Amino acid sequence: MEFAAFLTAQPSALTYLDYVEAARAAAKTPPALPPLRLAILRNATVETLVPVVEGELLRSGFAPAIHLGDFDAIASETMVADAPLYAFAPDFVVVFQWLETLSPVLATRFATLHGDEAAAEVDRVVDQTAAILRAIRARTAVPVLLNDFPLPSRPTLGILDAQQAHGESATLLALNARLRDVAASVPDVYVLGAMRLAAEIGYAEFFDAKQWQIARAPLGRRAQVALGREIAAFVRALRGRTKKCLVLDCDNTLWGGVIGEDGMDGIALGTTYPGSCYAALQREALNLHARGVILALCSKNDEADVLQVVREHPDMLIREEHLATWVVNWDDKPANLRRIAAELNIGLDALVFVDDNPFEIDFVRRELTEVATVLLPKDRAQYAAALNEGAWFDALTLTGEDRARTASYKANAERARLQASATNIADYLASLEIVMTFGPPSEIEIPRVAQLSQKTNQFNLTTRRYTEAEIRALRDADDARVYVMKARDRASELGLVGVLVLRLADGVAEIESCFISCRALGRNLEDAFLAAAANDVFAGGRVQRLIGRYLPNAKNGLCEAFYEKNGLALVERDGRATTWALDAAEGAVPIPPWVAVEVPQHAEMVR
Q: Is 42 in contact with 71 (CB distance < 8 Å)?
């Protein structure tokens, strides 16, 4: 497979050898991508996992560098300050433990254990793992992935195992639960679900018994691919590379048949096969919608026919209230996908397009390489599963703002109608009755702040990404401040849509980050946010100068003139990168008159 085709291929089309070839091609001609350094610590032979991780990171938009720790040297690599792990300075650490190396008695000799011996061994494994995680966290703040353990396909007690409350399977489930608790107790440690993946592909495909005996290499080819994809899904989630919008074709995708030819009574959709397959796809799309994924339709059809099905078909699950927008006409799909992205004010790289037609999918892949595509399989029973095979929408938080996302985009349409009826922009903005709530984040808001840093690309002045632990530490530090902006207007409650991070030193406050959801743009809220932060930081007299930097990338061009627009003076230029300053002596920064500012009563604004 050609390297360019590898980068845009549907995951189900890729084999292990495709990853190997892609890793070799990238090594010969390194792509111009931002670097990402990932360390894998292991107590088993996992060298064959590396090409998949490299290939998936390339497909996610990163140039990978991999550090593979020595065999069964996890403790020594994590607990020594000058170990190769820390010299490598990773961006992510994967701790991969295979149970038979870590605890042979739990993995292969469970039947020999008596009394409390199994519980004591679980305690030992948990304590040892916790010590490793704490050692890593003491020396680096980067995210850590820790795998759980697959359940045995043949417990040593045979059919008796399922009858026992403390049998082998139950003990390993308890061990995995304990590991999950340990991960939750150490900041920015996440569980890599080996148990789930083994159940998904089957233990016989996950575990390679022969290679385990020959080389202590436990992972089968399918397991290597599954784990490599799972690792990349965490990287995408934490580095702002997840998708936002699922765009669905209609004929032979949401229902069987062609609505313009078969009519509403003739399409296949319902509780019996094959209509149940289309209902299953819709149900899975609604599961994604509940996780905050935007739903849209893109179909070559007469709009009236499609909307009749959406509104009136008794077995239709996706209704008009679930859709942020739709483009139904006879234009080509790439042109219509551009319209959808423009209307929703998101990038093309935020879209996942689903269609049953190979021609349409190939056309989109050639014309819009940024758009992820799903060609539905020939087996309609697999349609629902196809929506998630690329883990495009996987995230590590689920907030109220996520659940309300479609309503927010619908509210944008209401704002557009208000703007059309206004005589000028000031009247329009005043008519929105905008209220901005400004202050430090509460504890419950920290996951949303971290998520926003990881997902926001367009209005993001420096494109810094943060974990929850980093945000919490900055909020509580004496030499830093974190401000959040929540907003509402007459059309909707926008929720938490902006974050500004300041570092304080020697009378200067430097804006380390400022990022604002694209849902909040177009109301001058970004200007009000900067003004409120500047006025607050100057108010205590500790700060005499505010510094802000703009670091350009391929997506954040819309905020290039942000500081200049708000009265900061240019002090340095390096290519397109710029540094700006504002002095306290210049007085208070004006807040746009159509934005009312609220400060939470509990907020201690000036420290």
A: yes
Domain boundaries, the chain: 3-238, 245-386, 423-598
The CATH number of 423-598 is 3.40.630.30
DSSP secondary structure of 255-276: BBS-HHHH-TTTSB-SSSTTHH
pTM here? 0.80
What is the predicted pLDDT for the residue at 541?
Answer: 83
- Non-local (6+) Cβ contacts of 319 within 8 A are 310, 311
Would you place residue 115 in the very low, low, confident or very high pLDDT band (cuts 50, 70, 90)? Answer: confident
> Which of 36, 45, 458 minimizes the C-alpha distance to 234?
36
Sheet of 63-71: strands edge to edge?
63-71, 35-42, 92-96, 144-147, 189-192
Helices (H) and strands (E) in the chain, counts: 26, 18
Are 185 and 197 contacting, i.e. CB atoms less than 8 angstroms apart? no
β-pairing, 493-505 vs 480-488, is antiparallel
Nearest-angstrom CA–CA distance, 442 and 433: 25
Tokens standing for 485?
């902006």
What architecture (CATH level 2) is domain 245-386?
A: 3-Layer(aba) Sandwich (3.40)
What is the per-residue pLDDT across 142-192, written as a single tens digit (0 to 9) for each? 999 999 999 999 999 899 999 998 999 999 999 999 999 999 999 999 999
Mean pLDDT in residue range 501-525? 91
Q: What are phi and psi of 423, to 5 degrees?
A: -85, -25
Cβ atoms of 605 and 536 closer than 8 Å: yes
With 80 as the cut, is the pLDDT of residue 427 above it? no
pLDDT band of residue 606 (cuts 50, 70, 90) is: very low
Give pLDDT tens digits for 518-537.
878 878 899 999 999 999 99
Q: Do the Cβ atoms of 245 and 352 come closer than 8 Å?
A: yes
Q: How far is CA 353 from the centre of its chain?
A: 18
State whether residue 604 is helix, strand or coil: coil
Region of 414 (left: φ > 0; alpha: ψ -120 to 50; beta: rest) is alpha
Burial class (CB in 10 A: 0-12, 13-18, 19+), 159: exposed
Cα–Cα dist 356/251, whole Å: 8
CA distance linking residue 409 with residue 414, whole number of Å: 9
pLDDT on residue 600: 66
Encode pLDDT of 299-332 as tens digits.
999 999 999 999 999 999 999 999 999 999 999 9
CATH number for the domain formed by residue range(s) 3-238 = 3.40.50.1110
Domains 3-238 and 245-386 share a fold: yes
Annotate 161-219 with DSSP letters as a single string. Answer: GGG-TTSHHHHHHHHHHHHHHHHHHSTTEEEE-HHHHHHHH-HHHHB-HHHHHHHS--B
